Amino acid sequence: MNYLTFYLNHFRMELPHYKVIQSKKPLKVLVKSNTKQIRPYVVAAVLRDVTFDSARYASFIDLQDKLHQNICRKRSLVAIGTHDLDTIQGPFTYDALPPEDIKFKALNQTEVHSAAKLMDIYSTHAQLKQYLSIIKDSSVYPVITDSNGIVLSMPPIINGHHSRITLETKNIFIECTATDLKKANIVLDTILCMFSKYCSNKYTAERCEVVYPDGAVKLYPELKYRKETVNRKKVNSYLGISENLDSLSSALSSMCLKSTVLKESDVVVVEVPPTRHDIIHACDLYEDVAIAYGYNNIPKTLPKTTTVGSQLPINSLSDKIRNEIAYCGFNEVLTFSLCSKDDVSTKLRKPFDTQSTVRISNPKTLEFQVARTNILSGLLKTVSANKKMPLPMKLFEVTDVVLKDVTSEVGARNERHVCAIYYGKTPGFEIVHGLMDRIMQMLNIKFSSESGNTYQIKAANDETYFPGRCAQIIYQGNTIGLMGVLHPEVVTAYELTMPCSAFEINLEPFL
After folding, report:
1. Where are the alpha helices (DSSP H) in 413-509?
2. What is the residue range of the signal peptide feature (predicted)?
3. pLDDT tens per residue, the chain (511 residues)?
4. Which ranges of 14-143 would DSSP assign to H, the alpha helix?
């Protein structure tokens, strides 16, 4: 028995069971009808008698930041507000008012400002400026106040200074305003489950009443548990293993899922806790069994049908080019296939190309409006997000872009590109030029003005690149890409301050 198995068998903690406490006089949140114009939903709960220290406090703030960035979609779907309940008085009111009518001292501010003034103040704030667009153009801003008119928060921008959380805070009022009620419940459950362990009455949360304008009363949090069944034969068939019910139950328990064996039905009944909102269907439990079992431990078998597999030529070529560029000292990155319209147009000083750009019909965020038509914008965003890293930065990516194509069955096609970028105190044009020449050398393509299997470089003018510092890369008489020093306006559009050089070419012609 190895050490890990010994540890799991002898020191495993009992799984916590999260409970909702129903107070005789629960705190109420009164929702006004104006909120329908901007953020119609709110959920709330209370954590009683919490004990904070510096590590727990930092973790509490960090959890909120992480939730805001992922499931809350940068606060566009849900915004979290946490308050010291002992400094405020219920019932609370959730309303939406004109910016001039909202006045309070925001978190870490020294003076009282109107909401309109705060929007101006935070327009240059490193973290908060990205959230202003969520409500800035609205005629009303959401605001939560207590019975004395004290502003708790102006979601999704900032909380009030009066009810701020400190290390001495004992009772925490948590409110989540949202445009998606399901996501709000997930966020609230997550915070409560993670930090109810620090309450004197562990793993409990006090319920609040949310009263809507039509008189409907909703109780939060829900902290729901539900039952799912896992069929032994199905699990073994899907995963390619042969485990008994007890082994499956043990595997699920190791994934923090309480399970019970029903041998007469040949199933394992699993209790899905409120910490696992990611479990939507029984197939998610099959995945947990596979993780606990270990993917590398699943026996490898030959397929039942005779097939001959081989790597696609474009992928084989891409892998070879990746290795070669990495040997030259460049770091590979992976960027999103979707981006904003500005990323493929305005920031690159180009008009939006409706003829070749695939647009998302119902984008959920401004960051994912279109399919990328180039890799360069993704690399620039990567550099912008890593400005604290040592210079120079040498990055590359070999991946697909998406272009409209009426001849394709789905109306679009993928095109494999390679892009490299150099960001430092000097433009480094000779470095990206040398890298491009090395790629051609590896492909056994010579530089020549003659026709045939050769490539050429010719001066060109492109809005993205600095005038007189741009060149076309031509292969067999066709332009396959561009290379040069980026225009200063492109660099500043991505909040960068150093010169930058790049090239991007299409790999499809080399197959």
Report:
1. 429-442, 488-493
2. none
3. 444 455 555 556 678 899 999 988 999 999 999 999 999 999 999 999 999 999 999 999 999 999 999 999 999 999 999 999 999 998 999 999 999 999 999 988 889 999 999 999 999 888 888 899 999 889 999 999 999 999 999 999 999 999 999 999 999 999 999 999 999 999 999 999 999 999 999 999 999 999 999 889 999 999 999 999 989 999 998 898 888 999 998 889 888 889 889 988 889 999 999 999 999 888 899 999 999 988 889 888 877 787 777 889 999 999 999 999 999 999 999 999 999 999 999 999 999 999 999 999 888 888 899 999 999 999 999 999 998 899 999 999 999 999 999 998 889 999 999 999 999 999 999 999 999 999 999 999 999 888 778 999 999 999 999 999 999 999 988 999 999 999 999 999 999 999 999 999 999 999 8
4. 54-69, 115-121
* Number of other residues whose CB lies within 10 A of the CB of residue 58: 11
Q: Is 159 left (phi over 0), alpha (psi -120 to 50) or beta?
A: beta
Omega within 30 of 0 (cis) for the link into 467: no
Cβ–Cβ < 8 Å for 159, 128: no
428 dihedral zone (left: phi>0; alpha: psi -120 to 50; beta)? left
Give the integer Cα–Cα distance in Å for 500 and 486: 6
Q: Given the structure tokens 């393509």, which residue do they identify? A: 445
Q: Quote the CA–CA distance of 312 and 316 in Å, as a whole number.
A: 6
Check residue 8 and report its DSSP letter.
H
Q: Does the pTM of the predicted model rise above 0.90?
A: no
CA 443 to chain centroid: 37
Q: Which helix (H) or strand (E) holds 172?
A: strand 172-178
CA distance 31 to 212: 5
Q: How many Cα atoms sit within 13 Å of 280 on the Cβ side?
A: 3
SS3 content of the chain, % helix, strand, coil (to 5): 30, 30, 40
Q: What is the DSSP string of 354-412?
A: TTTPPBPSS-SSTT-SEE-S-SHHHHHHHHHHTTTSPSPEEEEEEEEEEEE-TTSTTSE
Q: What are the Cα distances from residue 460, in Å, to 50, 256, 417, 509?
A: 65, 60, 20, 21
Distance of CA 386 to the CA centre of its chain: 17
* 477 φ/ψ angles, rounded to the nearest 5 degrees: 85, -5
Question: How far is the C-alpha of 300 from the C-alpha of 231, rounded, in Å?
Answer: 22
Which residues, 6+ apart, have CB-to-CB distance to 178 below 8 Å? 39, 41, 42, 43, 77, 78, 79, 184, 187
| Helix (H), strand (E) at residue 286 | helix 282-293
Q: How far apart are CA 474 and CA 464, in angstroms?
A: 18
Q: Which residues contact 53 (CB under 8 A, 6 or more apart)?
A: 167
* Peptide bond between residue 221 and the one before it cis (omega within 30 degrees of 0): yes
